[in-house]
């Protein structure tokens, strides 16, 4: 989970776009409804599924994914079929589940800096603080 502050909520035709500040980055979330009790200035905890995290060793260009999280690889649990990449952003830890083949192709190493990408439709508020 990542702690963030809600900077802005834009709602049009039943769809809301939330903009958050988390440490030094902005994150975005799309929601089909405005969430009750959640308003600009509130602190929240954001979450996403590990399988929704895309790992890149270089910044992606011309990409539709809005949420780019610079992260440090802290551990790699490599299996025959899938690998779990343990990541740290600021003081927050999260994981990415990728195929073992992708882990090998990326040649990921503990201590390496990577970019974790999460679609705005995958982000959700797990707790209002």
List the helices and strands and how they pair.
Layout: E1 2-12, E2 15-22, E3 25-31, E4 43-47, E5 54-56, E6 67-78, E7 82-89, E8 92-99, H1 100-106, E9 113-118, E10 124-128
Question: What distance separates the N and C termini?
Answer: 13 Å
What is the name of the CATH architecture? Answer: Beta Barrel
Unreliable segments of 5+ consecutive residues: none
Q: What is the radius of gyration?
A: 15 Å
Q: How is the largest sheet built, in terms of strand order?
A: 3-2-1-4-10
The global form is elongated
Compute the number of strand runs.
10
Which fold name is given in CATH as the topology?
A: OB fold (Dihydrolipoamide Acetyltransferase, E2P)
Order of helices and strands: EEEEEEEEHEE
Distinct helical segment count:
1
Structural class: mainly beta
The percent range for strand residues is: over 45%
Number of domains: 1
Q: Largest beta sheet, briefly?
A: 5 strands, antiparallel
Helix content range of the residues, please? under 10%
CATH superfamily label: RNA polymerase II/Efflux pump adaptor protein, barrel-sandwich hybrid domain
CATH class: Mainly Beta
Mean pLDDT: 97
Domain Mop: 62-127
Pfam families: TOBE
Keywords: Molybdenum
Organism: Campylobacter californiensis
Give a short summary of the structure.
The chain is mainly beta. It has one helix at 100-106; strands at 2-12, 15-22, 25-31, 43-47, 54-56, 67-78, 82-89, 92-99, 113-118, 124-128.
What does it look like?
- The structure is a single chain.
- By secondary structure, this protein is mainly beta.
- Helix content is 5%, strand content 57%.
- It has 1 helix and 10 strands; from the N terminus they run E-E-E-E-E-E-E-E-H-E-E.
- The chain has one helix at 100-106; strands at residues 2-12, 15-22, 25-31, 43-47, 54-56, 67-78, 82-89, 92-99, 113-118, 124-128.
- The strands form 2 sheets. The protein has a 5-stranded antiparallel β-sheet with strand order 3-2-1-4-10, with no helix packed on it. Strands 5-9-6-7-8 form a 5-stranded antiparallel β-sheet.
- A hairpin with a 2-residue loop joins strand 7 and strand 8 (92-99).
- The longest helix has 7 residues, at 100-106.
């Amino acid at each position: 989970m990542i702690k963030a502050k809600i900077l802005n909520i834009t709602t049009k035709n039943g769809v809301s776009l939330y903009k958050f500040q988390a440490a030094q980055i902005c994150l975005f979330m799309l929601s089909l409804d405005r969430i009750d009790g959640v308003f600009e200035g509130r602190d929240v905890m954001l979450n996403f599924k590990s399988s929704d995290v895309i790992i890149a060793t270089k910044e992606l260009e011309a990409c539709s994914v809005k949420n780019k999280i610079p992260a440090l690889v802290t551990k790699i649990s490599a299996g025959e079929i899938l690998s779990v990449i343990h990541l740290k952003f600021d003081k927050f830890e999260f994981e990415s589940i990728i195929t073992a083949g992708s882990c090998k192709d990326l040649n990921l190493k503990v201590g390496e800096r990577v970019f974790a990408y999460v679609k705005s439709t995958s982000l959700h508020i797990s707790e209002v603080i």
